[in-house]
Amino acid sequence: MELNVFLPPQALKSGAKVPVFTRLTHRVGGLQIEGEDEAYDFGSGAGFYVDATKEPWTKGYNMYSYITKELPEALFSSFKELDSDRVSITGHSMGGHGALTLFLKNPGKYKSVSAFAPIANPINCPWGQKAFKGYFGEDQQQKWKEHDATELVKQWKGPLEILIDVGTGDNFYKQKQLLPENFVEAAKAAGNDKGINLRMQPDYDHSYYFMATFADDHVAWAAKHLGA
After folding, report:
1. Were both Cys, which of 86, 88, 93, 94 would link to 112 (CB 3.0–4.6 Å)?
2. What is this structure's pTM?
3. How buried is residue 128: exposed, middle or buried, by Cβ count under 10 Å (0-12/13-18/19+)?
4. For strand 82-91 and strand 18-24, is the pairing parallel, antiparallel, or unpaired?
5. Domain 9-23+85-226: which topology?
6. Which PANTHER family match (predicted)?
């Protein structure tokens, strides 16, 4: 996997540990599995942050373990400047799905979470259904729910604060691939919606220009929760 790490100057000069802000994207490193490069929404184009249980995807398609276990161990052992007790997470599109599910599946691991145009209810959208059938199998509905933010938020205990931005001009939003309202409604039904800030941004699409426009807000959101 390709990885970029930015260390601010103060971390290199002072020796003080700095908090970590992780941004998730959607691609998986190619593993030469037949068919993995055929679609943008499956295989190397979209690993969905799960540990696959269906062959042949078990051979390396373990993004959940990679992000929650392997990568932190490698980072914190290699960069002593990083504070392993202060980590926040964000992501865009499928990376937004990953950010939400990783946060909700691991209470206390991340200080905060935010997302740009996340796939918030994958078991009820074509993208998610295709991915989960491929990685888990069609008969593994419970496994599907374990990686769906809308299902996970129903089980959350205690206060919950999340920042989500979605553009109203996003074609994938219009095609019912993202379904952020389902996430908010599930949180509301469970009494966990008070701290969820879903911002529908007029006319913005799914592009990185959308992310760039509101990136400062997400950095500030993380900084507040990280005590930075």
Report:
1. 88
2. 0.96
3. buried
4. parallel
5. Rossmann fold (3.40.50)
6. S-FORMYLGLUTATHIONE HYDROLASE
